[in-house]
Give the backbone structure.
Amino acid sequence: MTQATNLLKVVVIGGEGIGPEVTDQSVRVLNWFIDRRHAPLQLHDAPYGAEAYREFGQILPAQTMEAVRNADAILFGATGGPDLDVLPKPVRHQGSLLRIREGLTLFANLRPIIAHAALFASAPLKAEVLEGVDFVIVRELVGAIYFGQPRGIETLPDGQRRGVNTQVYTTSEIRRVVRVAFELARTRKHRLCSVDKANVMESGVLWREEVDKLHQAEFSDVDLSHMYVDNCAMQIVRKPNQSDVIVTDNLFGDILSDCAAMAAGSLGMLPSAAIVPRDAAGRSKALYEPVHGSAPDIAGKNIANPLASIQSVAMMLRMTLGRPEDADLLERAVRHTLEAGHRTADIAGRGDTPISTFAMGDAVLASLDQIAA
Ligand code: NAD
């Protein structure tokens, strides 16, 4: 039996809205790997959100922040929605997912987009543009307009109100995330597209200059291109299979990945990994979460698609837990589940009978059993 000290700690935070529903399915999957593949993992639930506020007076209680700091990996569900919106503003600002990202310096968010052939018929885009879609958006996650100062809403002397946010990047913030993207491109097709708005934004000019400098100095073997974000949004729906790795800033990455979700069939299909720099021991801690939010419109109905969260577990197995074979197995199980025709409502086509969140969890577990047998 594995020694308790050798167990990798996975902190599980369901969060708000559909977060707990989809995360529950991922926990079932993780437990399958513990039971059936002897994955040396210890899962710990940590409080977060409106419920944590009622119990501890904080959305992100100190013990949760402590747990994520000590974790090897974090599995997060979703945040946001009506239960949080009604809490006092200072409480919302004190603690949130953004504070976890900032506190752990989760500066690079990897968002793979794959179009499964089994979903071509029900996808919003035409099947012929979906052939071969397999790219990654690397989104900068702890800088720019989400965190820049000054920010706020003020009342001007003439009585008007003014809202202010600041888009700001330093060279080191740009270089560390772009480096991750170049390194990722080297493991794929050696193609990187850097996306900015350098035609109107100084932060974009700096971004582009730093990308070029890093390319020349260290990554000239990677085929680099630049694109303005408006064009990129169009290209992602016009010809999504032309991309390999895209690197972009915090806001653009947020928007472009929702757009890219249409190539995967649904936002409920996009996993992600937010990574920190490797520590001295070479460990790469990360937070794994679906790209989607708390989806208040479908929360509590047991109809959300858990595959984004479950595929985030596959990323965790590969990137943090050092179990690439298990990651492959889980990705094959997801593909098998889709090929067998199981569909939640968001990916159901004409003639499909949608199944529940829990039933999709069942279907993935059944696929795992079948493939591993
Ligand atoms: P959303 O991602 O929650 O939902 C957008 C649309 O996609 C909705 O129609 C929703 O029903 C659908 N959808 C999302 N995930 C789905 C899934 N797994 N299965 C089926 N359908 C799914 O975005 P929103 O509605 O703009 O935001 C809702 C709340 O979530 C807001 O408070 C927002 O701030 C927050 N949010 C949080 C995160 C996060 O936790 N990382 C990300 C985005 C938005």
